[in-house]
Every structure is written in C-alpha cells, then in structure tokens.
Amino acid sequence: MRPALFEQPRDKLAHEVWKDIVLAQQLYDAQDWDGAYAVIKRFLKRRTLRAQPMTYDALGSCAQYQGRMGVALACFRKALEIDPHYVEARNRIIMIRDALPETTLAQAQRERDKWWAVHGAPLYAKRIPHENDRDPDRPLKVGYVSGDFQFHSAVQVFHRIVLEHSDQVIPYFYSTTPYREWDTITNAYRVRPGWRDLVDWPDSLVANKIREDQIDILVDLSSYTAWNRLLVFAMKPAPIQLTGWGYATGNGWPAMDGLIADRYVIPEDRQHEHVEKIVYLPSVIDYDGTAGLPDATPLPCLTQRPTFGVFQRSLKLNAEEIGVWRELLRRLPESRLLMKSYYCPSLIEWMRGLFGAQWAQVEIRGITSSFDHKVAYGEVDLFCDTWPQTAGVSACDAFWQGVPGVTLVGPRVIQRTTASFLTILGLTDFIAETHEDYIEKAVSWVTTRKEELAALRPTLRARFQASPIHAGYVEAVEVAYRQLWRDWCATPLSIADARKRLERVLAA
Fold first, then answer.
1. What's the chain's average pLDDT?
2. Is the fold of 140-288+472-507 the same as that of 300-466?
3. ω before 53 within 30° of 0 (cis)?
4. CB 384 within 8 A of CB 403
C-alpha cells in the first residue's frame, strides 16, 4: 500500500519543509526505504510541521521494510494516537503482530478485537435485514472483493476459482485495484458482466451497490492487506460473508460468517479458537502454476555444493529464523543460502550482523520478473521456510519447480500453511517440530537423503497438479457455497430482523 506522506495544509509551509515532503514521497515511491525514513524523521522534527497520521504511517512502513518491526509498531500506534479511526495503521499492526514469532493466537485475536471495537461494531450495529430470494437451489450470486485484480501472487490463488465457475454461480468482481496497477490480468476481469470498478467509491456506496446486486455470498480476498474494503464487510451487505485465499488468518470478527481453511491449518478440535465458522475445503488455497515454465532441473547438489533458498519479502524475516539458518550453514560449511527479494541496505546490514561468520555463505539477489523469479528455483535444492508466517504462494511456486522445503510447524494458521501443502502431497518428512529438527532435516535432505530428493524433484509438479491443492478445487468451492446457502435459507429471521423488514415495507 502506498500511503500519502502528508496532506498539504492550507497555511503555506516554509519552502525547505515542503521540499523535504516532496523528496520523502519520491524516495518512498522509489522504494528507497532508508532514504525516505531519514527524510521523514528530519521533517517530523520541525516545529512548524503539524504531524498527521499518514506521516507516521509512512515512517512505520519504511521501518517495516527495514526489518525494524518494533519501530514500525511504535509508528503505527503513534498514528492511532493522533487519529484513533485511522484504520490503515491498525491493519498494519495486525499484519506485523501476525508475523512476529512471539505472538500467540490470543494476542493476534486481541488486535482484531480492537479493530472491530473501533471500526467495525458501530457499522455492524446499523445493518439491515437481507431480502435475497431464499430459494436453496437457484444459481448463486457470489461477489468477490479485492484490491488484487492485477498481476499479483494472490491471483494465482483465486484467479481460477472466480473465473471458472459453473452456471450455478454468477460471479461479481468488486475491484478496489488502483488504476495505476491495472494490467492484462485486470482486463481479463473487466470484460466480465459482473465487473464493478469501485476505486475511490465511499464504503457506504460500495455496500449499497452490493445490496443492489443482491449478492448472496460476499467473499473478501484481501483481509488486512492493501486496498481492502473491510469496512464494507462490517456493514454486512450480503447474507453470507467469507474470508480466505488472500490472507489465510481470518478477520476475526462477527460480521464474517466463515473462514476458508482446511483440516490441517485448523484442526476440527481447534475450531473454537476462531470467531468465524470454519469452512473446510480440501486445501487452504488453490494454486495454478505459471504457464511456460521449464521443467524441474536436476538436483543441483548432486554435482555442486548444496543450495538452500529463501525467496521471501522482508516482513517474513526475523532474528529467530536467521539464527537457525546461521546454524544450518555452520553445520554445512560447503553449502550456501540464496536469498531473493528486494532488501534495502539497512536490512542487509542487519542480516549480516545476525549471520556473523556464516555471511560468506549467503548470496543476496534482487527482484526480477515473476517468471525469472520462479526459474531461479532451478538453482535451489531445498527451500528454507520462514516462520511464524510460513509460505503460501511462494511454497507452491517452489513445488511447481520441483523444490520441496523444510518447514517449522506451530499452532496458528499462519504457522501451518506450508505444512498443510506438504501433508496433502504426502511429504511429511519435511515438517519439523523444533529448531533442531528443522536443521537436522535440512542437512539430511541435501546429504544422506539427496538421492531421494533427486528422485522426487522431477515428479513433484505432476504430484502437485493431481493433488487437492489444484485438482477439483473449483468444484469443492461450489459445493461449500451451496451448503452455506442452504443453511442460511433454512435459518428463520430473528425477531429484530423481522421487525426491521416490516418497518421498511411499511415505510415504502
């Protein structure tokens, strides 16, 4: 998300102050997080400048990309001190807390409770009854709300679902994707009769449009990520509201009727830990591989030094992981760790300090095209999963290219996605329970078990394609939708809703 750093006040700012503001925005847009952070800090010190929440939001975003999560949280909380209703800052706090190793499930839910109390509950209290036709067997109108109708990793998860429905589902696409992000993927949606361009629409008008379209099931594909419309969901414009695919952890408040998951990420005996009803599918996500990618390469470590891979963004990196990777490299001094993403200079220096002597075994590569990014897995023997936020689409990218990974499993949904994929694929020997287990599994797979790994590599894509992560997924989604709809049709109106409906009829 690209926050505006500052709203130009009506009174004239000193020339040098305004120059700093413009410079900070330019540096931010260029993803120069170190430079933007320094400039924002400088102009925040000026006594003539009235701090606004988006300024601290931008400062926190820079700190986040620098890997300084504590600083980022402090900035976002400062933005909320200035304006308690600045929802973007609260969204970012939730996502950072989700990604911290020390966060418990209860703590993650408390952050969601705060969001709901301030932003959601007042809107939810004003909801009105739904007048959808309660025919349990008619075609369903399903609305998808997302800021990612564009070339984005999330598209590989939901693109096939929303575009390949049977005639029993009539899809609508409520887009909040900014115009600057539109591309050929966007155009694939725009030609559909259910396309709705809602960029810059007020939340209340979006909710009214959804009601006007008589949507039966409304699906949130963004959750707390960029360009979401969570406030629309708080207004409850559809009888059934679900969240999933875009961000696996759930929204955690009562306006959402269901959270899409599978029985590994949320075991049945742990459903009570979640606010939403769990909607079980064969896999927590669907995945459709990129067309035209080459077949898996031969296992590199058969002829070269072992190569581990971490192709993850800065939000998923933390000191605990790096300590484990450092020990892994120490035990295999002939190995290397290939890290690939955009990492700013200060983050790289932070990692250098944590890796210590093992930094010589680390290779950092910057961002490339998505296609070349996936091709780069050809150099990797085994990917090292991050935690607590384990891989989603990036794990599937690796599997598609024949590269499995070792993962550390934990109690939260965010800690179990890669382990879910590995379980579905019958590869549970890659799932670790402790740090030591993680290291030992990684070492053994590229040394004593490398012949097994070499045999698995060329078969993994076909195994993946035949698995429930891909095969039959759209059909399973429609079965789940139909059951949810029938359950709603069979539920009588509450007395309060019946009274509100009668009042509306009489007023008309």
1. 93
2. yes
3. no
4. no
Q: For the domain made up of 300-466, give the CATH fold.
A: Rossmann fold (3.40.50)
The sign of the torsion formed by the CA atoms of 373, 375, 379, 383 equals positive
Do residues 472 and 282 touch, judged by C-beta distance below 8 A? yes
Q: The domain 140-288+472-507: what is its CATH number?
A: 3.40.50.11380
Closest CA relative to residue 232, chosen from 263, 191, 201, 269: 201
Each residue's pLDDT tens digit, 485-508: 999 999 887 655 666 666 666 676
Residue of 329, 384, 385, 317 lying closest to 356 (CA atoms): 329
Facing residues of 45 across strands?
A: none
- Residue 345, token pair as written in the block: 């200079």
Higher confidence at residue 497 or residue 21? 21
pLDDT recorded at residue 1: 46
pLDDT category, 381, cuts 50, 70, 90? very high
DSSP conformation class of 290: P
Tell me the pairing of strands 382-384 and 405-408: parallel
What is the DSSP secondary structure assignment for residue 57, as one 8-state letter?
A: H
Q: 53-65 and 87-99 are packed helices; what angle lies between their axes, rounded to 10 degrees?
A: 20
- Whole-prediction pTM: 0.93
